[in-house]
Design goal:
alpha/beta; 5-stranded mixed beta sheet; 12 strands; 5-stranded parallel beta sheet; elongated
């Protein structure tokens, strides 16, 4: 441990320092309250002994200033030492943030008891922090499980639904457009049958990574919602811009040039895209946007696949 000794009695201070070093700890000396506080701000020790009166300064006030520095200084045990400290002063010491009051001179036995006690507290604190850190890591991992697709690492259906609803309400509040793209890999069941499930997983991962790299900067969001279906949420995007971007994504999938002999529309893997958008002033419900994109995807599939279809919400609502 690093132990600070702030004692104006030089002989007594040196005796304490010698004993602390003998027990394998690092001793740090301070002669004024200002020095004590500055050292605590730079790198607070693990245990502090402060004289009741240090170079004319009140040890109680020094303790109060140590606690106000925050950080590790909130936790460090502080023991006030003095030759004559009455009960009223002891109460003031504790109220200022002191943890104990000891009469000088300190015997090695009493000093050792306080050092061992502080060492045990430090070990307990470090164990608590270790457990807390492990819990944070575990919670982050759990959060990833809840919000990330295991295969691809992008968003999953849960995070897609949360993002769509959140961004939809943001768009409504700011009266800005929002668009949604749903894409589905064409004839993917036949792909798995011809090439196997492992090849299918590789294809999905490759497509996900290509889509992720193609996303525009900003608040756009990509998720794998089911099997071979992906969703892209595009805040502040018009229908025409979303359609252009869908065509860009369609070209990105084709550029992967993944062979697909079982496809009914190409000799390599392709995707169909359904696009929906909401103009400012025409907001209804967030799930109407999803229903419209679903309808657009159905139309893209129905008209030969490997294409994009823009479907306004009003059009989907008529079906």
């Amino acid at each position: 441990m690093r132990i600070m000794v702030a004692d104006q009695d030089s002989d007594h201070r040196q005796q304490m320092v010698a004993a602390i070093q003998k027990w394998g700890h690092t001793a740090q000396e301070a002669l004024t309250g200002r020095e004590v506080v500055e050292l605590c701000r730079k790198k607070c020790p693990d245990l502090i002994f402060v004289d009741f009166v240090l170079s004319g300064e009140s040890g109680i006030e020094i303790v109060r200033q140590i606690r106000q520095t925050g950080g590790h200084a909130i936790w460090v045990p502080i023991i006030i030492i003095g030759k004559t400290i009455d009960d009223a002063a002891i109460v003031q010491c504790v109220e200022a943030g002191g943890d104990d009051v000891l009469q000088k001179p300190l015997s090695e036995t009493r000093l050792l008891v306080k050092v061992r006690s502080a060492e045990r507290l430090l070990n307990m604190k470090e164990e608590v922090f270790k457990v807390a850190h492990e819990l944070v890591v575990a919670n982050r991992a759990l959060q990833n499980v809840v919000t990330q697709d295991v295969l691809t690492g992008i968003g999953n259906s849960n995070s897609f639904e949360e993002t769509l609803e959140r961004d939809w309400f943001k768009a409504k509040q700011s009266n800005t457009p929002i668009a949604l793209i749903l894409l589905n890999l064409d004839f993917f069941q036949a792909f798995n049958q011809n090439y196997g499930a492992e090849a299918g997983d590789r294809a999905i991962k490759n497509v996900a990574e290509a889509l992720r790299l193609a996303l525009p900067a900003g608040d756009s969001f990509l998720a794998r919602t089911t099997g071979e279906t992906f969703a892209v949420v595009l805040p502040n995007t018009t229908g025409n811009d979303a359609l252009k971007f869908a065509e860009k994504l369609r070209a990105v999938v084709e550029a992967l040039n993944i062979p697909h002999k079982g496809s009914g529309c190409s000799d390599h893997l392709t995707a169909s895209f359904g696009i929906a958008f909401v103009e400012p002033g025409h907001f209804t419900r967030p799930w109407d946007l999803k229903d419209s994109a679903d309808y657009g995807l159905y139309q893209a599939k129905h008209h030969g696949k490997n294409r994009s279809y823009l479907a306004p919400i009003a059009e989907a609502a008529k079906q």
